[in-house]
UniProtKB/TrEMBL annotation, chain A:
Residues 2-78 form the 2Fe-2S ferredoxin-type domain. The lineage of its organism: Bacteria, Pseudomonadati, Bacteroidota, Cytophagia, Cytophagales. GO terms for molecular function: 2 iron, 2 sulfur cluster binding; metal ion binding; oxidoreductase activity. The keyword Iron applies. The keyword Metal-binding applies. InterPro entries: 2Fe-2S-bd (IPR002888), 2Fe-2S-bd_dom_sf (IPR036884), 2Fe-2S_ferredoxin-like_sf (IPR036010), 2Fe-2S_ferredoxin-type (IPR001041), 2Fe2S_fd_BS (IPR006058), Beta-grasp_dom_sf (IPR012675), Diverse_Oxidoreductases (IPR051452). Keywords: 2Fe-2S, Iron, Iron-sulfur, Metal-binding, Oxidoreductase. It comes from Chryseolinea serpens. This is Isoquinoline 1-oxidoreductase, alpha subunit.
Automatic annotation (TrEMBL), chain B:
Gene3D superfamilies: Aldehyde oxidase/xanthine dehydrogenase, a/b hammerhead (3.90.1170.50), Aldehyde oxidase/xanthine dehydrogenase, molybdopterin binding domain (3.30.365.10). Residues 213-304 form the Aldehyde oxidase/xanthine dehydrogenase a/b hammerhead domain. GO terms for molecular function: oxidoreductase activity. It comes from Chryseolinea serpens. InterPro entries: Ald_Oxase/Xan_DH_a/b (IPR000674), Ald_Oxase/Xan_DH_a/b_sf (IPR036856), AldOxase/xan_DH_MoCoBD1 (IPR008274), AldOxase/xan_DH_MoCoBD2 (IPR046867), AldOxase/xan_DH_Mopterin-bd_sf (IPR037165), N-heterocyclic_Hydroxylase (IPR052516), OxRdtase_Mopterin-bd_su_IorB (IPR012368). Transmembrane segments: none annotated. It comes from the Bacteria. This is Isoquinoline 1-oxidoreductase, beta subunit.
Length: 155, 754
């Protein structure tokens, strides 16, 4: 066991974990941040996507020992106090979710994409979202929501 | 899907009991009237502590807050929204004042088995009656208050309004209504469809904001019980087979690992609700449990399926599909008609074992203590889970509480409660709350797979270009074989899913089956046997169209014959109309024709497309819903298949929640594309060879339709299913489009063009 000082959603959090523990299980087991989901455990499905300093990573395959002082952002940390994030709003406007399980990961990938590229074309979207699986098949609406999100921001 | 036989096999419920619960009337819904009033002295209007519960499903407090019970499981269809909407509409409740509460498992709610696309079909009318009864009670309460006739009072938008214009709120009326007797069912009037406010209108799901903000609770997301431990199980790669020995020393050295012990394997067949057994690793946290399991050394016994090789097995089924089998439907004389035919179309079709792979793997939280058991789990069949828990723990059923979380996808997998029983047995051993996690490897290697199926079709066309004969042989191991080693023959229910209910007016028809032994756990997957039957029938029709030199849609319309309700009097096996009588839900060729004609019109069928592109068509009735589908594909030089456009036309009776119907069809197209283009489970030595998404491939964004147009037929008919019906016609429409684009027939899934 080792002690790690993490910055999660803007807060300093101290956790005890063995060094190779994936960030996913630290978030879920130690910090009870259950919005980030387990899907495959080998960075194949994207359900566990979070941001490290704004870059999307698969938390199931990111050991806690490698986080250092990088800022961790999860689905619980992207909304402001009184308002959901524009991408979350776009997701609601398009009624994207079905079962909803993969959507946190999808949204985190989309937020990261839009931060770098506010007007992605179909190819950009397909590339950025290729690591996120949805078994309910909400892909069409995910694409629409991503295209809508910048306009949502402008509102 | 559910059949009477499966139901009785799993949970020892007789067909009679099953029907009793499915035909529940409004009187059943209005049992359990309860009043609770903590403060009766003030007699203030709108006492917020007063709760009026006129139905098991509806309560209203003095503030006017309405609580509606969702008793079906939410796995992505929107049912947690759609059925409460039905009650709110009939009740004239304001949807913004409604809170939806998920029911625990309890027989008092009637059928809770969320499977077989029948939630809306079964509960639409009873829940409308429940809502309408409450509306009438509130109107009667207002009439009494004003001393007027009830005919002068009308409930609208959370108020009862008198013809003079005065009004009283639902909250005010709650206590007054509670004092009235429940009106007779005959005095309750349902709304006219033109007055619907929420039914057949657009609505978002109740969990939308919780889902996008990460607050929604799925199976592993309940962290409220102190001292909860995490368990994983190492299972024999051959399902049900035994354990020889294990060495736990290294595993016990992993920090956080608490206990390692065995759960007895059930042998084979496993049944649908018993855990697979194996070596259990319990730890303080998930990572420790996983690391502990990795360090285990286990020696397994071989079981009766140690020789199971899926390639050999499938080849054998295909070989036998070419030989005469047991007749399950016969019209005329197929053999002589085929002999006399001018042209004969002959083709074989093969569908592999498939896995459900919902994004949320099986999981549960259980706490067994002091002879009670409480679980929080993503289950499709809460009452089945409850019964299985009581049986496994030898507890009275009343001592078992099943709380139903959101399901992170299910597709049939989570109607089997084996994983919930695992959690409870481990919790009992540990004496603490326990969460069980199935890793993706556990999920893919120990599923209840969709059956592999081999089919052989032979169609004869005479000198007048008329189709005169249709021979269809289907060979697959039946789901019942997972519970009963003697079950080797496909059931009537399985064959009624797209084989023996073939609707075309062909004089000579023969449907045959061959026995097949279940060699691994087989279970139902979204649309079940419709998957392979619709695939073979839909692709064969396309070949018939080509042989006749007729457009594929025109070909289907030609073969359909006159408008009629099909009578299934030539069957030699029991016909299954998805649990409904044919009088109530006929097999209507007129409705089938209409969706096909509408698809031709809406899809711009026959439009000019560049080389490498093509359109394909198929239509299918399943779960009492009529669906026609046109798929457009492009195939590039690298054989990458893309699906720019899908058009569905759906007749599902009254479209209760059109927004979610559209979502089910968009998602159903993507799910079917994934099955057809990507997925395959193979087995050698009794063990599944795939383990995770790198080798069990599923559809990603680029594999899925770019745009799915869903055209819903206007209808006031009884509503029918929409969860499963999108899947069956999509696969043949896709394969026919690939043929149009490339000239290649796809007779084996997954599609491989090289």
């Amino acid at each position: 066991m080792a002690t790690y000082q993490l910055v999660v959603n803007g807060e300093n959090r101290e956790v005890e974990a063995v060094p190779n523990t994936p960030l996913l299980w630290v978030l879920r087991d130690n910090l009870s941040l259950t919005g980030t989901k387990f899907g495959c455990g080998m960075a194949q499905c994207g359900a566990c996507t979070v941001h490290l300093d704004g870059t999307p990573v698969r938390s199931c395959s990111t050991p806690v020992s490698t986080i250092g002082n990088k800022k961790v952002t999860t689905i619980e940390g992207i909304a402001s106090a009184d308002k959901v994030h524009p991408v979350q709003q776009a997701w609601m406007d398009e009624n994207v979710p079905q079962c909803g399980y993969c959507q946190a990961g999808q949204i985190m990938s989309a937020v990261a994409l839009l931060a770098k590229n506010p007007a992605p074309n179909d190819q950009d979207i397909e590339t950025a979202m290729s690591g996120n699986i949805c078994r309910c098949g909400t892909y069409e609406r995910i694409r629409k929501a991503i295209k809508r999100a910048p306009n949502t921001t402008a509102k | 899907m559910k059949t009477a036989l499966n139901e009785s096999t799993i949970f020892k419920v007789s067909r009679r009991d099953f029907l009793k619960s499915t035909s529940m009337s409004v009187s059943g819904l209005l049992l359990g009237i309860s009043f609770s009033c903590s403060d009766t002295t003030k007699k203030l209007t709108g006492n917020p502590d007063f709760v009026f519960t006129p139905s098991l499903f509806i309560s209203l407090n003095g503030n006017g807050d309405v609580t509606l019970i969702a008793h079906r499981s939410e796995m992505g269809t929107g049912i947690r929204t759609s059925l409460p909407l039905v009650m709110a509409d009939e009740m004239e409740a304001d949807w913004n004042r409604v809170k939806v509460v998920q029911a625990v498992a309890d027989e008092k709610y009637g059928d809770q088995n969320t499977d077989g696309s029948y939630s809306v079909r079964m509960f639409f009318t009873p829940l409308r009656k429940a809502g309408a009864t409450v509306r009438l009670l509130l109107e009667q309460a207002a009439a009494k208050e004003w001393g007027v006739d009830v005919s002068e009072c009308k409930a609208q938008n959370h108020e009862v309004v008198h013809s003079s214009g005065k009004s009283l709120g639902f909250g005010y009326l709650a206590e007054k209504a509670a004092a009235l007797p429940i009106p007779a069912e005959s005095s309750v009037t349902l709304k006219s469809p033109k007055d619907f406010k929420y039914i057949a209108k657009q609505s978002s799901i109740v969990d939308l904001k919780d889902i996008v903000t990460g607050k929604a609770k799925f199976g592993l997301d309940n962290n409220h019980l102190p001292n909860t431990k995490i368990a994983v199980i190492k299972r024999n790669p051959e399902p049900g087979a035994g354990l020889k020995s294990f060495v736990a020393d290294k595993a016990m050295e992993v920090p956080g690992v608490l206990k390692i012990f065995t759960l007895d394997p059930p042998g084979f067949p496993t049944t649908l609700n018993k855990p697979l057994g194996g070596v259990v690793v319990v730890a303080e946290n998930t990572w420790a449990a996983l690391q502990g399991r990795k360090a285990l050394e286990v020696t397994w016994n071989k079981g009766i399926n140690a020789d199971y090789d899926s390639h050999t097995y499938n080849s054998d089924m295909l070989r036998r599909a070419k030989t005469k089998g047991k007749v399950r439907r016969e019209n005329g004389q197929v053999d002589s008609a085929l002999k006399n035919a001018k042209k004969v179309i002959e083709a074989d079709y093969m569908v592999p074992l498939l896995s459900h792979t919902p994004m949320e793997t099986p999981c549960a939280l259980a706490h067994v203590h002091d002879n009670v058991c409480e679980v929080w789990a993503p289950v499709q069949d809460p009452q089945g889970a409850r019964k299985s828990l009581a049986e496994a723990l030898k507890l009275d059923i009343k001592a078992v509480t099943v709380n139903v979380t959101l399901l992170g996808g299910a597709f049939g997998r989570k109607s089997k409660p084996d994983f919930v029983v695992e959690a409870a047995l481990i919790s009992r051993t540990m004496g603490t709350p326990v969460k069980i996690l199935w890793t993706r490897e556990d999920d893919i290697q120990h599923d209840f797979y969709h059956f592999p199926a081999a089919q052989h079709l032979k169609v004869g066309i005479d000198e007048n270009n008329k189709v005169t004969s249709w021979l269809h042989r289907s060979v697959f191991p039946p789901i019942d074989g997972t519970s009963d080693s003697k079950a080797k023959e496909a059931s009537g229910a399985e064959l009624s899913m797209g084989m023996i209910d073939m609707p075309f007016a062909i004089e000579n028809v023969c449907c045959e089956t061959q026995e097949a032994t279940v060699k691994t756990r087989i279970g139902w997957l979204r649309s079940v046997a419709n998957i392979h039957h619709a695939y073979a029938v839909g692709c064969t029709l396309d070949e018939v169209a080509q042989a006749r030199g007729v457009d594929p849609i025109q070909n289907a319309l030609d073969l359909l014959g006159s408008d009629r309700s099909i009578e299934f009097n030539s069957l030699t096996t029991e016909f299954w109309n998805y649990g409904e009588k044919l009088e109530d839900f006929p097999w209507s060729t007129a409705r089938f024709r209409k969706v096909i004609e509408t698809a031709r019109e809406k899809s711009n069928w026959g439009k000019n497309l560049p080389k490498g592109s093509g359109q394909g068509f198929a239509a299918h009735r399943s779960f009492l819903t009529y669906v026609a589908c046109v798929v457009e594909v492009t195939v590039d030089a690298n054989n990458k298949i893309r699906i720019p456009k899908v058009d569905y036309v759906v007749d599902c009776g009254t479209p209760v929640n059109p927004e979610r119907i559209k979502a089910q069809f968009e998602g159903g197209a993507a799910f079917a594309a994934s099955l057809a283009l990507k997925s395959e489970i193979t087995v050698t030595g009794g063990a599944v060879q795939q383990s995770n998404f790198h080798n069990y491939l599923v559809g990603r964004m680029s594999d899925s339709p770019y745009e799915t147009a869903v055209h819903i037929m206007e209808s006031n008919d009884k509503p029918t299913g929409v969860g499963e019906p999108p899947v069956p016609p999509f696969i043949p429409a896709l394969c026919n489009a690939i043929f149009a684009a490339t000239g290649k027939r796809i007779r084996q899934l997954p599609v491989r063009l090289t």
